[in-house]
Amino acid sequence: MGLKVLDGFGPPMPSRRPPATHDDAPPAFRVARELPVGRHPILAAFPGLGDLPPAARLEPDPAARQALFDETCVEIVPDDIWMYVAPHARPRGVPRRWEPKLSPGSDCIVIGESHLRESPALILYLDIYHELCHIRQRHAGMELFDRSEDYVRRPTEVEAYRFAVDEARRIGASDAFLREYLKVEWVSEEDLLALYEAVGVPPAAA
Q1: For 70-95, what is each residue's pLDDT tens digit?
Q2: Exposure winner among 62, 160, 167, 182, fewest CB in 10 A?
Q3: Number of structural domains in the chain
Q4: How far apart are alpha carbons 47 and 31 in whole angstroms?
Q5: CB-based burial of residue 76 (10 Å sphere; 0-12 exposed, 13-18 middle, 19+ buried)?
Q6: Which helix (H) or strand (E) holds 73?
Q7: What is the rounded CA–CA span in Å between residue 150 and residue 47?
């Protein structure tokens, strides 16, 4: 796709990497940074991901959690993007210039190659659970590409960002880190403040 974001329909993740105010993912989090471009099981890209504490919070039922991690894949692409859940079919109303990877009948998270290889481990840690939250939402019948709501007010995005924020706080991330993490380049300052409020991150002091 060649662009990081497109009118709220690019990868629903931060458009810049936060400064190294808190750059330590949990020691048990592993990333297979040299995995080649193409489609792989999610646990090939992130070994042990289903055994970490956020996995049980995401899906409390052990059998369903096992299925989630066994049946979800990732597709590494050379495009300059972060991550997004591949639609089963092209969503209605999205910009023509966005050509998402489609994954009919299966759950797949698309990851930009440079993001996987170069981004801080903590960013990848929060991003992948954000996207897994979207997959759980889709399993529950929620629409991930709903243009009737502004990006920062979509229930799916608020829930997924809140999940990531709660996990970041659990492992010691600062509010300054979270403010940077939540910035997306197509969102106005007013909407960014609304997102901060929705997920419980205080704005920077004036």
Answers
A1: 999 999 999 888 999 999 888 876 77
A2: 62
A3: 1
A4: 7
A5: buried
A6: strand 72-77
A7: 35
User: Is the Cα dihedral 151, 154, 159, 160 positive or negative?
Assistant: negative
pLDDT at 1 over 80: no
Length of the chain: 206
| Inside any domain, residue 87 | yes
Residue 86 within any structural domain of the chain: yes
Residue 49 domain boundaries: 38-199
Tokens of 12: 């629903």
Q: Does the residue 31 lie in any domain? A: no
Q: What is the DSSP letter of 46?
A: S
Token duo for residue 93: 């109303």
Contacts 24+ apart (CB under 8 A), 143-147: 144/85, 144/87, 145/9, 145/87, 145/91, 145/94, 147/8, 147/93, 147/94
Cβ contacts of 37 within 8 Å, gap of 6 or more: 76, 77, 78, 113
Q: What are 46-69's pLDDT values in tens digits? A: 999 999 999 999 999 999 999 999
DSSP label at residue 72: E
Full-model pTM: 0.88
Is residue 57 assigned to a domain? yes
Q: Which residues contact 193 (CB under 8 A, 6 or more apart)?
A: 203
Report yes or no: 32 and 45 within 8 Å, Cβ to Cβ: yes
